[in-house]
Amino acid sequence: QVQLVESGGGLVQAGGSLELFCAASGRNFSSYVMGWFRQAPGKEREFVAAISWSAGGTYYADSVKGRVTISRDTARNTIYLQMNSLKPEDTGVYYCAAQYHTGTFYYSIDHKYAYWGQGTQVTVSS
User: Fold this and answer.
1) Rounded to 5 degrees, what angle do the CA atoms 41, 60, 30 make?
2) What spatial distance separates the first Cα and last Cα of the chain, rounded to whole Å?
3) Burial (CB count <10 Å: 0-12, 13-18, 19+), residue 118
4) Which regions of 26-125 does DSSP assign to beta strands (E)?
5) What DSSP state is assigned to residue 112?
6) For range 70-98, the mean pLDDT
7) For the chain, which terminus, N or C, has the lower number of CB atoms within 10 Å?
8) In degrees, to the nearest 5, what angle opens at C-alpha 19 toward C-alphas 17 and 24?
9) Could you give the CA distance from residue 57 to residue 19 in angstroms, rounded to a whole number?
10) Residues 62-74: tens digit of each pLDDT
């Protein structure tokens, strides 16, 4: 059973930083791409960043490029999301997700991800 557990959210002032963590378990994730999505109140869930577990390739939404870094520690089965220069519009619940693939994957499409964590709240005050 795949389990994804996010942590690290909180309240931060605009311009500040936060690091989110996603502890993954229950599977060998070498054939997975791991993604971070977020959902603000009243808005649809949107893609933030993704990383290929095996190759380490990274992908970012334009809205966070240059401010956010996704990484993984395969020994610890953990995905990280380092967020800098945070803006009020970064506020939302951040979800970690896992997508199995056999070579082709759709890193920004949420319904391609079969496994999701419970989310962690990030609030950026102005």
Assistant:
1) 105
2) 40
3) exposed
4) 32-39, 46-52, 58-60, 68-73, 78-83, 92-100, 115-116, 120-125
5) G
6) 97
7) N
8) 165
9) 19
10) 999 999 999 999 9
**CB atoms < 10 A from the CB of 9, how many?**
18
Residues in the chain: 126
* Residue 9 identity (one-letter amino acid): G
Per-residue pLDDT at 67: 98
* Contacts of range 98-101, beta carbons closer than 8 Å, 24 or more positions apart: 98/2, 98/4, 98/24, 98/27, 98/29, 98/32, 98/33, 98/34, 98/35, 99/32, 99/33, 99/34, 99/35, 100/31, 100/32, 101/31, 101/32, 101/33
